[in-house]
Design goal:
Elements: E1 2-3, H1 10-15, E2 26-28, H2 35-39, E3 46-48, H3 55-64, E4 70-72, E5 78-79, H4 82-94, E6 101-110, E7 116-127, E8 134-135, E9 141-142, E10 148-157, H5 164-178, H6 184-195, H7 199-210, H8 217-233, H9 237-245, H10 255-267, H11 271-283, E11 294-295, H12 302-313, H13 317-330, H14 335-348
Helix pairs in contact: 5-6, 6-7, 6-8, 7-8, 8-9, 9-10, 10-11, 11-12, 12-13, 13-14
Length: about 350
Amino acid sequence: MIVKNEEEVLARCLDSVRDLVDEIVIVDTGSTDGTKEIASRYTDRIYDFEWIYDFAAARNYSFSLATQDYILWLDADDRLRERDRKLFASLKETLDPAVDSVAMEYHLLLDAEGNPAAMSRRNRLVKRSRGYRWHNPIHEYLEVNGNVYLTDIAVTHDRKGSHSARNLDIFQRMMERDGGLFGRNLLYYGNELADSQRYAEAAEIYEKFLSQPVEYFEDHLLACSKLAECRHHLGDMEGKLRSLVRTMEYDIPRADFCCAIGYCYQDRGEIRKAIFWYELALRLEKPLHHFGILNLICWTWLPHLQLCICYGLLGELERAYEHNEKALEFLPRDPNLLSNRAKLLEAMGEGGGPG
């Protein structure tokens, strides 16, 4: 781990893995709070690394201190939930030593029932002897090749606060040093601008990134999605729709983009068109070998909720009721869905469901 001023979350992270790992290595990049004191309760392998505005350098230093066969890396605001702790313990007992890297799910957001609502994947457990290296000062990535094993073990991320100001500062230093930003760094810079609500600037950066040759199609999908978000905030709804449709230049339709397209038409009052896209979302399978971000609710309850609304607007109450019930299968205690049920039953003059 690399840490700095993580006293609020570090114990939670380490409590979730302390009995699963054979050593804990903490690299501190300049904490001024109680981070190192908390870390000392779990390990005596705590090291200082002078912050040089380079996350990859800090992570590579942390990897250099590991001594076991495999390295698990975590951020301080990550944790393993109980299900994943059990799966990880089992993995340790059964992992084929020919595996070079274990790619785990990364749950970025949970819904009201504790189910993952958004996720990506990371190469999370890597063989030390392969000498894999981190690259990029900001939004660093671990370059991995060889025998990669995909697992549904998940690391759950509970982000605390915003790091955009810090990240933009690092990007500024990179631009001054290198004369600009290139490749994937353009995408990451656009993301930081968007997170800072600098939507017009972010949109320009996304357009510049999308004009580049495709190296990794998931990056272009993300750029289209983020560009659509910027167009929305800038009041350019036609541009938003064009950006979403553009995702299909890089991959077959995905449920999350179909839902977003459906909402564009729903917002314009073109309800039949909206229904087409929501129903298409329900027919699509979740991509299996992705490493990009997936908005998982678009493969579960969200299309059903939106179809409930759309069919309700058309006066097709029985179909609205059916989709609301399907959404309730995923969120059985959701107050809005329960309210929808009651209102639809009343409107249909039924007490026990549609006839």
